[in-house]
Amino acid sequence: MDVDVLVAGAGPTGLTLGVDLARRGVAALVVERAETLFPGSRGKGVQPRTQEVFDDLGVLDAMRAAGGPYPPRMIWRDGQQLGVRPMFEPVEATEGAPYTEPLMVAQWRTQEVLHDRLTELGGRVAFGRELTGLDQDPEGVTARFADGATVRARYLVAADGGRSAVRRAVGVGMTGESVDPSPFLVADVRVRGLDREYWHAFPGEDGTGLMLCPLAGTEDFQLAARLPEGETPDLSLEGLRKLVGAGTHLDPADLTEVRWASEFRPRAALADRFRAGRVFLAGDAAHVHSPAGGQGLNTSVQDAYNLGWKLGAVLRDGAPDALLDTYEEERRANAAAMLDLSTGVHRGEVQRGKATVQLGLGYRESSLSEDTRPEPAEPRAGDRAPDGTVDGVRLFDAFRGPHWTLLGAELPGVRSLPAAPSYGPGVFLVRPDGYVGWAGDSAEGLDAYLAGVGLA
User: Fold this and answer.
1) Predicted confidence (pLDDT) per residue in 49-107, tens digit
2) Less crowded by CB within 10 Å, the N or C end of the chain?
3) Comparing C-alpha atoms, which of 282, 270, 262 is closest to residue 42?
4) Side-chain half-sphere CA neighbours of 320 within 13 A
5) Which domains does the chain have, with CATH numbers?
């Protein structure tokens, strides 16, 4: 084997997985078809649950430095300001959930932070490596590249986007629907004549319109527009100037530069499977969202976070390969729910706020969630493990790292802490990805669970 894990795609999904595997000592290689990291803003919202993930991976401070908070939205019509509206329903922070507001980080900056962290941990990205085919056998996967090279890996993870070459190579279908018949465009631009205190919205009379959002941590604005049905987006400087001139009070020349631009048709689609033998699908290769509500990038990062510790457990800790089946079990259902949510936000049926911060996501129905208490109270097995303090130790600090954490009992080889008052009475085993795996009134019966995840 050349590597334990080959990761196709150096977007947020592939880089997150690369970071998680590197800190676990798993030999992994991230390959990217392009010669550089993705240059645009696209997915810019980092939800509170993803901030917790980034805290664990050691990059939250860098993410905060690379971005900033979301501004309120200023509504314009005919050159007049109609009023200011918040972008999100407020969600109150608590001891158990300290992060409640989305963070704005341009996607290209998110990727830079993750790439820097990957390099710091000894991992790397091989750029200019286009995967063109693969073969599987009982021992591993052989990936073929456009330059004629091959890489042999025990497992392959497709993080290569909505048009995934890996997904097509393994014959996994994708079922979905159009969310909106209208064409959309998104671009990173330089604009003069607008302040950076607001996300400026210019709604049209017919459901069309455009928005100009100051991208935190940069000098750019993100231009996003919904065009009339049947119109072909013009992504050139002149085309975007014409759009801004027609849809806002700005002069076309106030748009001074186009740094990146793309068009898309909002779609919701879900891969029929997330695992095909030794190949796993993650991120947009597994699910494609409308950008409304900021769920796509976040769901993708959490795919990688779920899969990373399981690959590490199988490859380094002796856990059975069957543990990897729980990736599809847990993440496909989660992605399906997030697709429905994204579509609901796009169509105005769901408000951004409590529904979109992803703090309520969990795996109660998973085969990895075992609660032996006769009358379980929250948190239950499968729930996100909340923050708190035990003997002066912050739980998120105790959780940080690739290990399991046991609250309320002691276990050799596992980080153990006294019972957490905020959790109530009982014993709680917290997974490496911050979810309660096992809960009981005592530690009785825990041994059998530990054996299934490679800890006994």
Assistant:
1) 999 999 999 999 999 999 999 999 999 999 999 999 988 888 899 999 999 999 999 99
2) N
3) 262
4) 9
5) 3-40+48-67+105-174+268-346 (3.50.50.60), 68-103+181-265 (3.30.9.10), 370-452 (3.40.30.120)
